[in-house]
Structure formats: C-alpha cells, structure tokens
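cron nightly-structures :: item 1 of 1
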Amino acid sequence: MMIRQFTFAVFIFSFFFALQKTQAQETCEKHTAEILPLITTALNSNEFDRIDPLLNTLQASCGVTEFGQRLRILLLIIEKKNSSAEIERYIDNNLDKAFIQRLDAADQNDFLYQYEQNKEKYNFYPLRHPLDNLIKIRAKALLSSSNYLLNNTEKDILHLFADTDIQEGEPIQQNTPAPYTRPQTAGNRSKSKMGYVPLIGVMSPLGGANKIFGTNVMFGFMLMSSLERKFIFEGGFNVRINSNDKNINYNYEGSDVTVNSSATGFIGGAVGYKIFDNDKCILIPKGIIGIDITDTGITESVYTDGYYDPDGYYYDGGYNDRMVTINNVHLGLGFSSLFQMKNKKYVGIEVGYHYAPYDASSKVLTPIQSNYGTAALFFRF
C-alpha cells in the first residue's frame, strides 16, 4: 500500500511539475519571438533606452538568459556605467560557457537542425540571429574606440562578445582573470550533453543489528544531465547481487515461509548541486530517491481472463507466472567526484548513505537493517 501511495504521489507531482514547466516554456518562447525583433531594431538604430525595458519583460518570462545578460553588459559599457556586477553574474552562471557553445553550434552546417532540436537550451533565440552580429560589431567598436577607458575585465568580456583573441602586447593585470580563449568544441560538447553512466560498486550495512543483507556487489546504468548547469539530474537503475545475505521470514498468503533473496533492483534518480568545477575536477553532493524491488524467490501463477482488443480480436486467458517481491522506498545522500580523462570524458567515485526500510511491509516478519553505505566507480560518456 505504501509503495502504491508513494508511486501515485510521485506521478501527481511529476505531472503538475511537467505541466507547469511546459506552460512556462511556451510563455517564454512566445515572448522571446515577440521581443527579439524589437530589441534588434533598437540596437541597430542605437536607441539604447528602449532596450532595457524589453530585457526586463523578457527576464520576467524566461529568467536570466545568456543573450539578455550579454546585451545588458554591452549597454552598461556603452553608457559608461559600472558593469562589474553584471559581468560577475554572467560568469557565475556559466553563461560565458553557454555563449561559447552557441558560437560552436552556429559554426556547424546543421545549425538550423541543432537549434530546432535544442530550442530551450538556446533560450528560444535562433542560432545566427542578426542580434548576435550587432552585439559583435558593437563590442569590436568599443575595443577600438579611444573614447572609452576600459578596465581589463571589460576588455576580456568584450573580446569574448566579439569572438576575437586578445591582441598581442595588450597589457593584462596580474589580479584580473585570464583572457577568454575558445576551448575545443569536442571538450565542451562532451561536458554539456547528456551523459551515459555505467557504474559498479559495493553496498554494505552501517552498524547495528539485523544485518540480513551483507556486503554485496552492485552494478547499474544512469543517465546524467549536462555538467554545465549548477543542478545535475540523474535517473536510472542498479542491481545488487545478494550473494552475502541471510534467510527472511515472509508471510505468503497467510503462511510463514522462509525465503532468500538473490537480487535487489533500484529504480529512481537523484538531484545534485555542483559546488566545484574547474573542468578537470567536479564535486557534486546529491539527494537520492527511488524504489527498491527485492526478489523473494517465490513465483506464483496468476490467472487472467480472455479479452477482445479494440479491433475485435479475441485473446485467450490463462495462467502467467509472476515474481513475488519486497518493495520499499529508498532514500539517500551521495557525494560524487568526477575527474576528466584525456578524451574529455569523466571517471568518477561516489560514496553514499542509503535508508532502505526493507521490513516496512507487514509481510516481512524478520527485522532488517535499514541503513547502508555505498562506494561506486563510474564512467560518464
């Protein structure tokens, strides 16, 4: 009953979350399509005072976007205002990396296809849009103008916007960030795309009594979202081979029987927050939630009636075998460390704490330890 309630609650939450997200995306796309031509016209005619209100309207619908923040910084520099806070926000939100990915994608022959497949990634702002070229021209003009006394941070960001290298001999102060250089496309794409993560590790009970499940090997496969974002999402499964375990007393159809589990499957996911990233090393603490399905070794035959499908064909009923399993909620906390390899992929180590109340069901008569620790090695491709 608890598993059904949990599953139903997760379904309802996921449904409303997905509906709300879809509506927000549709609103953002609609407003972006309406506002982009107005911003482009205003920048082309140097009507800078018209742009800020348009950006505020866009931000209310879409949040902070890369091109919106890029344009804010450009306008602040043009108007000779302090741009340091907006530049800092641009870098802290990894928008510089998002812009580099945009440049790389726009350089490809299939840029139209890439945009159509990843509209949300590009903030519903088409690749090779005329606004990109206008910002690029303005950035180059600022760099070559004698009317502006730019600090090194402003020079660096304008070189990025202009998609140019810092000129040789141009002074760079020691206490300012290093000049922006455009990294190799393959490296960025490996990090920014969804990752495929096979893993292998061990799971062991943490102290206490009732250690029905001992230290056992587990393996699995997960999908991991882009590493460019602060929040990292994972989903998938793993299987633990219960080779080092004890018998369990189980109430099967009113009778007490002794069972022994051969394996436990986990289906679920995790939400992590990236606290450190220098490309070579990434650190991610995470929360884990899912369902455990533990084999009891019992197989029962279930009879199903015959039925007609919508086309009028009749299918005979009969007996089908069904496994009897122990199902329970699985919660946990984990910490992942990822290290970049020479091919720009990642190898990682994860340690975790897991709360798995196997004996929560009234049918499980043997008390079972609920606290476990894991250590796993994984690769992200």
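cron nightly-structures :: done
The longest strand covers residues 281-304.
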